[in-house]
Amino acid sequence: MMFGSDQKNTKSKEHHEEIVLTKVVTLSALCFAVAWAGPTAATSKYPAKPVRMIVPFVAGGGTDVVARAVAQKLSDRIGQQFVVDNRPGAGGRIAMEMTAQAAPDGYTITMISGTTTASSNLQKNLPYDFAKDFAPITQVTEQPYVVLVPNALPVKSIPELIALAKAKPNSLNYGSSGTGGMQHLAGTLLSQKAGITMVHVPYKGGGQVIVDLVAGQIQLAFLNPLGARPHITAGRVRGIAVTTRKRAQAFPNLPAIAETIPGFDVSNWYGLVAPARTPQQVVQFLHQNVVAVLGDADLRDRLEKEGSELLGSTPKEFGRHIVNEVQMWGKVIREAGIEAN
Fold first, then answer.
1. Could you report the per-residue pLDDT of 160-214, keeping only the tens digit for each?
2. CATH homologous superfamily of 51-143+267-336
3. What is the pLDDT of residues 119-158, one digit of tens each?
4. Fold (CATH) for 146-259
5. Which of 91, 101, 265, 275 could link 245 by a cystine bridge, Cβ 3.0 to 4.6 Å?
6. How many angstroms separate the Cα of 28 from the Cα of each of 14, 19, 187?
7. Distance of alpha carbon 60 from alpha carbon 270, whole angstroms
8. Where are the domains of the chain?
C-alpha cells in the first residue's frame, strides 16, 4: 500500500523517464533524418561557387570552342560562373588525371572528346579507368569528318576510292593532324573495313594537311565540316562522303561511308564528365541544365553552322558510349599496330 508522498514521487519519476525517453527518440529520429538528408541538403545549394570546366586541349581548338560556348550559357542560366581551364598535354592524360583525382563535389567537370577516349589506348599505365573513375553527365555534340580528295584524283565516291586502292595498293596517302588522332583512326578503320592498304602521313596540325591535299601531295584527308566547307565551296577539293553512321545535316548531299560499309561510324564528339562518386543529385542537376542550354537558339545555331549535331544524351547512355568508344578504338589500334610517337 502506497501513501500519498510515495505515490506522488513514483508518478513524478515515471513522468521524468517518459520525457527523457521522448527526447532520446526525438533526437535519434532527428539524427537519422539529418544523416539521410545530408546529400540533399549539401546539393540543394549547388553551385554555391564557380565551377571549373577542364578542357584537355589548348585554347582555340574544337573542344575548347564547344566548352566555352556551353560554359557561358550555363553561367547565364544558373547564375554562377562556369570557368574553362585548359590543361593540354599527353593526349588528354593530364586533364583526365586531374579530373579523376578532383573532389567529387560537382565543382570540377571536364569536356572530353572522341580523341580523349581513343588515344587513351596508346598510353601505358594510365592512372584512371574511363569506366570506373568518371561520372558521365551528357554527350553534348556529334560531328562528322568529311572525306576529301584532290580534284585531280579520279574518284567521286567511296566505292571508287576502294576500287582504286585495291587496284593500286599503298598508292594512296592520307594525311592527319597526328598519330592516334581521330583523323588517323578514321583512315585506319576505313582500311580495315574495306580491306585496302593506304599510307598514313602524320602532320603537326590540320593546316598543312589541306595545303598538301589541294596540291595533290596526298590523296585523301578527313577534315571537320568547318575546315572542309570553304575548300569544297571554292572548288579546291572534292568532298565524297561523311564518316558518321548517317548523312550529316551540314552536308546532306554527301553519302555516309556506312551506305557502302555497313556499321562504319567515326565521329568527332564532345561530352561532359565529373569525377566518380559525384552525388547523383549534382550529376542530374548538371545534366538537366546542359540539356536545357543545348536548346538555346543562339548556341544551336552557332554549333550547327560548324557542322555539329547537338545531342544531350542521358548519363547512362553517355557512359555506354564512352566505354564502347574506348573498346572499339582499342581493337582498331591493336590490330593496326599503332604506337604513340
1. 999 999 999 999 999 998 898 899 999 999 999 999 999 999 998 778 999 999 9
2. Bordetella uptake gene, domain 1 (3.40.190.150)
3. 899 988 899 999 999 999 999 999 999 999 999 999 999 9
4. D-Maltodextrin-Binding Protein; domain 2 (3.40.190)
5. 265
6. 21, 14, 64
7. 15
8. 51-143+267-336, 146-259
